[in-house]
Amino acid sequence: MVQKGYRKYVSLLAFVAPAFILYALFLLIPTINGLYYSLTNWNGLNPSYQFVGLDNFIELFTEDPYFLDSIWFTLKYVVCMVIFQNVIALLIAVLIESRTKSKGLFRTLFFMPNMLSLIISAFMWTFIFTQVFPQLAERTVLTFLGQAWIGDPKFSFLAILIVSLWNGVGYMMIIYLAGLQGVPQHLKEAAVIDGANIYQQFWHVTLPMITHAITICLFLTLNGAFKVYEVVYGLTGGGPGRSTQVITMNIFEEAFSNNYRYGYASAKSVILFLIVLVFTVIQLRLTKRKEIES
Amino acid sequence: MRRKQLASWGVNLFLTLGSLIALFPIYMAVLNSFKSDGEMFRSFIALPESISFANYIEAFTRLDMLSSSLNSATVSMLGILGILLCASLAGYKLSRTPGRLSGFLFLLFIASMLVPFHSIMIPLTRMAKALHASGSIYGLSFIYIGLGVNMAVFLYHGFVKSIPRELEEAAYIDGCGELKMYVKVIFPLLLPITVTIAILDFLWIWNDFLLPLIMITDTSQYTLILSTNVLFGEYNKEWSLILASLVLTAIPVLIIYAFFQRYIMEGITEGAVKG
């Protein structure tokens, strides 16, 4: 079975080549090119462009208020998503885990929205927000539903959160459920015998046993929330004005709909990549440490 | 005991309300897709006066949903087949070959899973143009293979570790060549993870919006989501048609969910735990 010398490499390369070539063409090389373009003033239409060093990066931090606004808005969104998505998903998972007969049914129902694409979810919810809710507010006692969900920046942020949570909670719930199934029954029983109430059981037995699931879910939420695009595109398109514009949308606008400044937009995407990287590395460090302790 | 029962009722009530919220938008979309615009505005909540497929028929005839459905199906099929073929070959070999080169290649694959799509979309459009891969669903499928193999290689790589080597050694002694061994011995054993990857990739490609948006301009090559997007963007929103096309886009996904729920959930936890 052990092959000698160059034959081993030939067979390795032959098996890996199909995957690697497509991967290199459409992912690896574009990643490297993106880094390079971010240092140029390429505008997409003009075939020639110059190397401009860090000019793009200086410009986007000093002369581009829209970009900075989009970073702040995205951060606000990320914080809300990290908290609510995980709290709600964990709550639902714990409650479902406590059921016996209806466990499977509830799991199926809560996960279902996650099957739909974010853009389809956003379109569906636009129908709910702009058509169904106003009618309900008008004709029933649910008057609080009658808000300008899409038009008023305060409510459109809420609308974006609602749709993201509606779509995303099920996914995290599945991971938490898998984590909860790994909590040994005898530990819970021991805690009950020691007189722990439900909250004490949760805080001191369940939670420490599922820190691995928490690490994963925080990572996935952080990673996904920074890249939010479809929900905002489908609901508000970044408006009214630019009040709900997220980073990805700002990049998209810069590259494809406004001025085709590909070099400058590439610099923005490098910043996005760095932000995601820094936040997830910090988060993994912090939560991994907790995992080892427990 | 009374209190415990009460709490149990409370939990049931909470979960039932929660799942109603989860279902509400889907239910509303399906329900109202059978109504005309006029009937809809009389009441969104009421059941349709009669089950009418007029919206669907109009979506198919006027908006050529048939061709965009076929396009979506074609892209998904080609993309999935390509990913399964390329990634199983690579994942198997990388897992079975010790050494620095194979370790480096594997690392290169999995490290790229962190790169956000938005960071590569600009250079990707240029690359796709240069390779004449943009503008058609066939080129699009190849791009999906390039973007999707990293995750699939990762999952195959992990799965191959659980297959005993004795089988391959026995086949090798019997004089089986490498490619034949892969086809006859290895690939059949990879079936469980292959199903998982196929389903996850179907959900990804079928539901994807941004890549087709930047790659496809010709309406004859539109995927279902792009058609829906155009319809949605029109000034005078015809909700009856939009809802019909939303439901059409959602149906295949929900069917897959109904049949392969276990695989989907296992795929998620599998991918998550190993990552």
Output the CATH class name of chain A.
Mainly Alpha
Q: In CATH, what is the class of the largest domain in chain B?
A: Mainly Alpha
- Tell me the span between the first and last alpha carbons of chain A: 43 Å
CATH H-level superfamily of the largest domain in chain B:
MetI-like
- Based on Cα principal axes, name the global outline of chain A: globular
CATH architecture of chain A: Orthogonal Bundle
Care to give the gist of this entry?
Chain B: It is a multi-pass membrane protein. The complex is a heterodimer of chains A (294) and B (275). Chain A is built from 12 helices and no strands.
Question: In terms of topology, how is this protein built?
Answer:
The complex is a heterodimer of chains A (294) and B (275).
Chain A: H1 5-37, H2 55-62, H3 65-97, H4 103-111, H5 118-139, H6 153-181, H7 185-193, H8 198-209, H9 211-226, H10 230-235, H11 247-257, H12 262-293
Chain B: H1 2-32, H2 37-42, H3 54-62, H4 65-96, H5 100-111, H6 117-130, H7 137-160, H8 166-173, H9 178-189, H10 191-207, H11 210-215, H12 224-233, H13 239-274
Protein described:
The complex is a heterodimer of chains A (294) and B (275). Chain A has 294 residues and is an all-alpha fold. Chain A is built from twelve helices and no strands. In chain A, helix 9 runs antiparallel to helix 12 and helix 11 runs antiparallel to helix 12. The longest helix of chain A has 33 residues, at 5-37. The radius of gyration of chain A is 24 Å and the shape is globular. Chain A starts with a helix and ends with a helix. With 275 residues, chain B is mainly α. The longest helix of chain B has 36 residues, at 239-274.
